[in-house]
């Protein structure tokens, strides 16, 4: 692959990770958080999203295709990256490594989550509160989903920092520090929303 092609593919990978994939992740966590208000509230929110006009078109164009490109190209980036945390154990080097580790894990987690929900829906199952309650009644699956949510919120938040630097939004050391604090807050807020939603299915 030429350097020019790699440059543009990495830019596209960065952009799609925020728009639309990052926005979808945030929206998905917020919809799931309706579970904290009870079964009826979650089912209402889930049904609303599932019955949007042109929902299949929207899912493929806005979610699945961008997500597959971001995920598969991200795996390529992860396995061709040169990690040097042993020699230079700086904060940003660790974030660089964790971004790639969480990315690879998320490819596995999202594939499983899609299988358990969207594919099962296509086979006739109903995606609702009871489905998630049954899935998360298994302690292993609960731990797996919590790890998936935390990996997703970290990957998104840290990806926002990379996006800001890559696209010239945060160039100076001071602006990068400010973006670091903003993304830490984003990670914490989204993590609380996501984990609370999961626990609402089992408590």
UniProtKB/TrEMBL annotation:
<keyword id="KW-0479">Metal-binding</keyword>
<dbReference type="Pfam" id="PF01127">
    <property type="entry name" value="Sdh_cyt"/>
</dbReference>
<keyword id="KW-0349">Heme</keyword>
<feature type="transmembrane region" description="Helical">
    <location>
        <begin position="135"/>
        <end position="157"/>
    </location>
</feature>
<feature type="transmembrane region" description="Helical">
    <location>
        <begin position="178"/>
        <end position="202"/>
    </location>
</feature>
<feature type="transmembrane region" description="Helical">
    <location>
        <begin position="54"/>
        <end position="76"/>
    </location>
</feature>
<feature type="transmembrane region" description="Helical">
    <location>
        <begin position="97"/>
        <end position="115"/>
    </location>
</feature>
<dbReference type="InterPro" id="IPR034804">
    <property type="entry name" value="SQR/QFR_C/D"/>
</dbReference>
<keyword id="KW-0408">Iron</keyword>
<keyword id="KW-0812">Transmembrane</keyword>
<keyword id="KW-1133">Transmembrane helix</keyword>
<dbReference type="InterPro" id="IPR011138">
    <property type="entry name" value="Cytochrome_b-558"/>
</dbReference>
<keyword id="KW-0472">Membrane</keyword>
<dbReference type="InterPro" id="IPR016002">
    <property type="entry name" value="Succ_DH_cyt_b558_Firmicute"/>
</dbReference>
<dbReference type="InterPro" id="IPR000701">
    <property type="entry name" value="SuccDH_FuR_B_TM-su"/>
</dbReference>
<feature type="transmembrane region" description="Helical">
    <location>
        <begin position="12"/>
        <end position="34"/>
    </location>
</feature>
<protein>
    <submittedName>
        <fullName>Succinate dehydrogenase cytochrome b558 subunit</fullName>
    </submittedName>
</protein>
């Amino acid at each position: 692959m030429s350097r020019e092609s790699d440059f543009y593919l990495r830019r596209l990978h960065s952009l799609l990770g925020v728009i639309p994939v990052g926005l979808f992740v945030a929206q998905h966590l917020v919809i799931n958080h309706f579970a904290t208000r009870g079964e009826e509230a979650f089912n209402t929110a889930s049904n609303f999203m599932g019955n949007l006009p042109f929902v299949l078109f929207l899912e493929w164009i806005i979610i699945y295709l961008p997500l597959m490109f971001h995920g598969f190209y991200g795996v390529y980036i992860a396995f061709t990256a040169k990690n040097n945390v042993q020699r230079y154990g700086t904060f940003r080097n660790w974030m660089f490594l964790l971004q790639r580790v969480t990315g690879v894990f998320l490819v596995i987690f999202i594939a499983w989550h899609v299988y358990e929900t969207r594919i099962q829906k296509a086979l006739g199952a109903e995606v609702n509160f009871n489905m998630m309650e049954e899935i998360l009644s298994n302690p292993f699956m609960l731990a797996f989903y919590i790890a998936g949510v935390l990996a997703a919120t970290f990957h998104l938040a840290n990806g926002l920092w990379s996006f800001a630097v890559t696209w010239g939004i945060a160039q100076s050391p001071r602006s990068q520090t400010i973006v670091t604090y903003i993304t830490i807050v984003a990670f914490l807020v989204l993590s609380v929303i996501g984990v609370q939603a999961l626990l609402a299915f089992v408590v």
